[in-house]
Amino acid sequence: MSDLPEVRVTPSRPFLHAGVDFAGPLQILTTRGRGIKTNKAYMCIFICMATKAIHLELVGDMSTNAFLGAFKRFIARRGKCSHIWSDQGSNFIGANRELKDLWEQARLEIPGSLSDILVEDGTQWHFNPPYSPNFGGLWEAGVKSIKYHLKRILNSHLTFEEMSTTLCQIEACLNSRPLCPIDTTDIDSLEILTPGHFLIGEAPINIPEPDLRQIKVNRLSHWQYTQRLLQDFWHRWQNEYLSRLQQRPKWLKHIQEFKIGDIVLIKEENLPPGKWSLGRIVQKHPGPDNICRVYSLKCRDKIVKRSVTKLCLLPINGYD
């Protein structure tokens, strides 16, 4: 397992460097009433690379325009994001292209020193290699923290407003998780540092509600049901978070790197029976620690990038 990226260990303002991903879909009611149909909605998850604070936005679809709306709300409430990381989803690529055009147009229309300020306020996008979710482990963990439990407790449809409220309260729960003690010299001090301290100066809170987890769902009002969801989510996520603090199960062993010219198997989904995807290593892309985790391969007359987790050495070419 490599060292953490520089932005993960360099102090900075919250969300100055962030990762983003989508999760879902969720079935959302258009309004309350008998026979009302549902529409799909998605969660857009922003996570700070330095503080691990999480920001959630509910969006109506996964289009470029829907993401740009979520990104503008995120910037308006969290401030400038100078660097952002994501996978190579078409909505992210389209948003990056459109944001570049907007900043360039503004720079040309505003002459003088103000144009330089606009350049500094722009966002530089960084895309992970294709089919490599392990490169976005920080925000993938955030997606899992939310989606894994939410889909197990959500047994009734909510409206867009009710789901937005629930996600904001879930965001507060996630940003209240303990990171480390604030004062290690005072043995009587039990104050802890949380991601919320970097955002508002203290751990986020939710307005207290009676325990509704033992009450049947059909006896709860719509508002009480959203609070029941929050309480169920908190109970499940808190137990898992505490358990994960006790183990570090993956990527502890160094393996020998592939060599240029090696033929490898490429892990791909939806291949027909009896078909294999093969490629030949043509270029290595080592990281800051000089360990290569991304390779360029010649596959089907084109060059593609893949992470090492998607490549397998042929059995007869095993290294000593």
Automatic annotation (TrEMBL):
InterPro entries: DUF5641, Integrase_cat-core, RNaseH-like_sf, RNaseH_sf. It comes from the Eukaryota. Signal peptide: none annotated. Pfam families: DUF5641 (PF18701). GO terms for molecular function: nucleic acid binding. This is Integrase catalytic domain-containing protein. Residues 10-203 form the Integrase catalytic domain.
